[in-house]
Amino acid sequence: MSSTTPSTPASNRSNEVRDMYAALLQGELSGEEALAASEQMLKILMDSMSNAVFWKDLNSQFVGCNQAFSDFAGFEPALLLGKSDRDMPWADDNEFSSDWFIDWDKAVMESGEPRFGILERLRRADGVVTWIETNKVPLRDLNGEVIGLLGAFKDVTDVHLAQEELKRTLDDLDARVQRRTAEIERANEALRREVDDRIRSQAQERQQRTYAETLRDTAASMSQTFDLESVTEQALGGVERLVSNDLAAILLATAEGTLDLSRHLAGFGYLDVEIEADAVSLEELTVVQRLAGEAGPVIIDHPPSALGPARCVLGARMRVADQLVGYLIVESATPGFYNADHAERLAAVADQAGAVLSNARLAQRVSELAAAEERQRLARDLHDAVNQSLWTAALSAESLLNDIEEGSDMHQRVDRLRQLTRGALSEMRELLLELRPAELAEVQLRDLIEHLVNALEGRRRIDVTVDLQGVKLEPAVNIALYRIAQQALSNMAQHSNATALDVRLHTGPPVVLRVADNGDGFDENEVPSGHLGLQIMRERAEAIGAELVIESGDDGTTVTVTVAP
Questions:
Q1: Counting Cβ atoms within 10 Å, is residue 147 exposed (0-12), middle (13-18) or buried (19+)?
Q2: Cα(485)–Cα(514) distance, rounded to whole angstroms?
Q3: Percent residues over pLDDT 70 in the chain
Q4: What is the DSSP letter of 528?
Q5: CA–CA distance from 345 to each of 88, 217, 291 (Å)?
Q6: For residue 363, what is the DSSP state?
């Protein structure tokens, strides 16, 4: 016995729709029946959609909608006819008011172009606020004229809220990143200030060390002899190294109470002719008159009376106890050139020179042999004591370095100690050579330059490449090339900010000395007045018949000296 399930109203309606759709497709319906069937099918289709659908006329008044839209609006579809967005629950929203929706309608109908993905906020009839994404397209008649628009939207509240939450999260993350960035920037700024302070401190330390070394070398140079002429020469040499000038002079007080121009050095082009003592009244010089009544040192701009065409003069008095030994004077063609630092340096040299010159005058009563023996004894003492100690220290550091693991902090410290002791040893050898200047002509140029480079490495961290060949030169040539190399290395250390140095001596022929660095470089035409290092190098090269070429640019400076055979 078979059983059947009774039909429900819903199933009956479904069957009716199916039969009507089949009849419509098979052409069994025509006229008003076909039109009614089509309308019924369209309504069923619209009501089955989850998206809200509506259509309006040219006045933005609703002509029809599906059930989903009716649920949003709170009106039955039949009651929606003739209403506009101004009659809807969302009409009074502050941001998405009825005018918002009507303006979009006008934009679509007037342009005839569809608009997709319009994000809008809409308050439903039940009071729930939702976010919707709307598409609007123009409706046209058979002639293509716009007669209204068709709209559809879907609820995107969850997506929108998720996006807003994501945006808040990103904004919060961005704020945290900005705060952290600000903290890092503050930390970096503090670190930069600390680094700057350390750099300034190190620069001041290097400057003080250089000043002390130069002053020490000057004192040693002056103290190595009691010969008055040699002492004045060394004193002026110290002034040249410590205080830039266009002219440096030593005035010595005589037993008769007058002044004697003992020695002077003038920069190239500063004086037209050499100063003759008989032609100058030293007591009437402005700086002398000032120092006669002041303890000094004194700086005078535009002095009425000077040894040369000075625009700025600096002078210091040399005294031993209450005895006036003389005056140290430097002149510059640049107004306002000298400052308190120059004055302090000149005063330090004057203090040393005063004592040494006083001793030199006394030493003139002692035999030349005794003075020479004293110099030799001093050099031997330095060689046997300090030099040997430095040599032992250098060997100890070298040996200790081999026992320490490379890359360790202690290895770096010991390596730095080794460099310092090697540099100090080279500086001591230079000092010994200065104590015995005659030996400069006897020591090979290669060894002299190696001492200079080692001393430089001891004073500062720099990558050095050295290629020095042995060569036998005339004494004058040997000394001149040594002094040129000394000046070139000094200029590099003081002015270039170089991190790498290349020193080469090739025997040729011709003999070529080359000193190159990767520093800042300079323009020879813009070297300030009073900086005579380059001119002195040229004069030394010219004196031995050598060719001097100085090339400088952004990639560094190269000094090349060529001595023809």
A1: middle
A2: 8
A3: 76
A4: P
A5: 93, 14, 17
A6: H
Alpha helices in 123-282 (DSSP H): 157-223, 228-242
Q: Which helix (H) or strand (E) holds 33?
A: helix 31-47
Written as six digits, the tokens of 365 are 């009563």
**The CA-based dihedral angle spanning residues 167, 168, 174, 176, taken in that order and rounded to the nearest 10 degrees:** -160
- What is the rounded CA–CA span in Å between residue 217 and residue 351? 15
CA 508 distance to own-chain centroid: 42
Strand ranges for 78-180 from DSSP E: 115-123, 129-140, 146-155
In whole angstroms, give the CA distance from residue 559 to residue 503.
10
Phi then psi dihedrals of residue 275, to 5 deg: -75, 130
Give the residue-averaged pLDDT of 29-53: 69
CB of 530 closer than 8 Å to CB of 334: yes
Say which residues have a Cβ less than 8 Å from residue 542's Cβ, sequence separation at least 6. 548
Q: Is the peptide bond before 510 cis (omega within 30 degrees of 0)?
A: yes
- CA gyration radius for the chain? 49
pTM for the structure as a whole: 0.35
CB 387 within 8 A of CB 421: no
User: Is the pLDDT at 554 greater than 70, yes or no?
Assistant: yes
CB neighbour class for 86 (10 Å; exposed up to 12, middle 13-18, buried from 19):
middle
Show the tokens assigned to 291: 């120092």
| CB 301 within 8 Å of CB 311 | yes
User: Does the pLDDT at position 378 exceed 70?
Assistant: no
Rounded to whole angstroms, what are the CA distances from 409 to 200, 398, 406, 414, 459?
24, 16, 9, 9, 20
- Provide the pairing of β-strand 62-65 with 312-320: unpaired
Structure confidence at residue 272 as a pLDDT band (50, 70, 90):
confident
Query: Can you spell out the DSSP letters for 426-488?
Result: HHHHHHHHHHSGGGGGTS-HHHHHHHHHHHHHHHS--EEEEEE------HHHHHHHHHHHHHH
Please give the Cα distance from 217 to 243 (Å, whole number).
Answer: 15
- Cβ atoms of residues 54 and 62 within 8 Å: yes
The enclosing H or E element of 45 equals: helix 31-47
pLDDT over 80 at 486, yes or no: yes
Residue 364 predicted with pLDDT over 80: no
Closest C-alpha to 449, from 384, 510, 514, 544: 514
Residue 424 has which token pair? Answer: 């100090």
CA distance 126 to 129: 9
Using CA atoms, how far apart are residues 456 and 413, in angstroms rounded to an integer? 18
- Taking CA 452 as the corner, what is the angle to CA 246 and CA 501, rounded to the nearest 5 degrees? 90
